[in-house]
Amino acid sequence: MEKEIVILGIESSCDDTSAAVVRDGMLLSNVTASQAVHESYGGVVPELASRAHEQNIVPVVHEALRQAGVTKEQLSAVAFTRGPGLMGSLLVGVSFAKGLARSLNIPLIDVNHLQGHVLAHFIREKEVNESTSQQINKSPAFPFLCLLVSGGNSQIVLVEAYNRMKVIGQTIDDAAGEAIDKCSKVMGLGYPGGPIIDRLARQGDPKAYLFSKPHIEGYDYSFSGLKTSFLYFLRDQVRENPDFIEQHKADLAASLERTVVEILMEKLRRAARDLGIREVAVAGGVSANTGLRNSFLDYARRYHWNVYIPKFGFTTDNAAMIAITGYYKFQDGDFCSIDQPAFSRVTI
Q: Is 306 helix (H, G, I), strand (E, B) or coil?
């Protein structure tokens, strides 16, 4: 009888401290501690984030093991996010993972955070919610395209295997999530802007206002022009009516969301057509956006795609995606030496 593979995953790339346990590819626990301290600053403060990780890492890992019913002695390996991310935050998770693995004399597995988001589609759970859309929680077949969208990334990734991914399109300036957050801040709506814009957009008219769309060659994205267009539009309107934003914030949010989603989906559609691929997935924090999720289902009907949309809990930073990536790497014996440093910037 083969020995079980039990992987502890640790994620600390930004402001969420997360730990998860996977046994033979099945998720047993996924515990995340978020940091509310950043809300009053309108963005993540790196120094505060790293301090909070130091406070959270031990209790979060302890709770993940407890919920999984696993002792640390049963672990086969420790997988951790090595980058990209905030260096101070990464160092907390990396240092803890190294110390734990060394104390248990088990392998270390380094995980690229962006690859983890893509492989979130391969997380398996014991309980499946039958009321959700049929595409949710199923794994795409290789090769597939993945639209990876978050506060820091907007990429189209060609995924040929769990360890063979190629970025075929990416933003040349702002990421989609970054643009949404900045526009939300201009409107005075608070941080993080994504969930606020999403909620307001459900109440507004997506065709109320038109904002500029970029004309970029290939599959690359650009969102700086949209952000500037939005800013100048608000400036001109507020000059004539100081209460314009408050009176029209739902329509503004809906029109902004529609523009972002159309920019994202048009390039993705073109890539799928050119490559002849109908297996299409979405991942990253912005994949929680209702408008984008609905657009994916609409494109599935129009272009006969098989689409894959992660559960809300697997869209934002989480250790389950790190643990499942670690599980696949463990099977290949793809381990990391203890002297490998964290890295703040890296691509897939």
A: strand
